[in-house]
Amino acid sequence: MTSPARRRSAGDRRAQLVAIGLELLPTTPVQELTIDEVARRAGISRSLLFHYFASKRDYYTAVTRAAADVLREHLAPRPGLPAGEQAAGMLERYVGWVETYRDAHLSFVRGAAAGDPWVAEVYEETREQLVDMALAALELPDDARRRQLLRAWFAFTEDLVSSWVREPTMERGELVDLLRGLLDRLLES
């Protein structure tokens, strides 16, 4: 005799639906995720998905926030490494992230730049948390000037890495060294 299927809690079902969105992100930008495909993979109806998320935008926001959380965890400094090695390690992991999730990352950055409010909000929160992370990893004081320089450096890094992934014009190590050198020069000024 088989036991009846266990009914998922609302939190478990929401987490499952977001996880499906995350699984699809390497090949599908978040704005192109179809609710029908997500529901099919979850084994539920489309209308049941909207029981857990009020709208497509709410679902996309949840997936985008989850992806940003994964990115921050992926880039987080590794305990025990000196500050100088932290930045290089974070850069290496960032380049790998963009290589793996190129289209999804590009849609995230472009969606924020295009003024899509829900993407821009998640993007800005993520950028500020990455600035916090970088300041802590590099053991730098947190002041308005350094924050501004780091935000500008992150914007440059996003653009260069995205274009490098499409058309590599230098070795990966050269790219990381270039970005690290630029960061050092900016923060010395």
UniProtKB/TrEMBL annotation:
Keyword Metal-binding belongs to the record: no
InterPro entries tied to this protein: DesT_TetR_C, Homeodomain-like_sf, HTH-type_TetR-like_transc_reg, HTH_TetR
Annotated region of DNA binding: 34-53
This protein's UniProt keywords: DNA-binding, Transcription, Transcription regulation
SUPFAM superfamilies: Homeodomain-like
Record's keyword annotation contains DNA-binding: yes
Domain HTH tetR-type: from-to ranges: 11-71
Gene Ontology MF: a single term: transcription cis-regulatory region binding
Protein's name in the database: Transcriptional regulator, TetR family
The organism of origin for this protein: Trujillonella endophytica
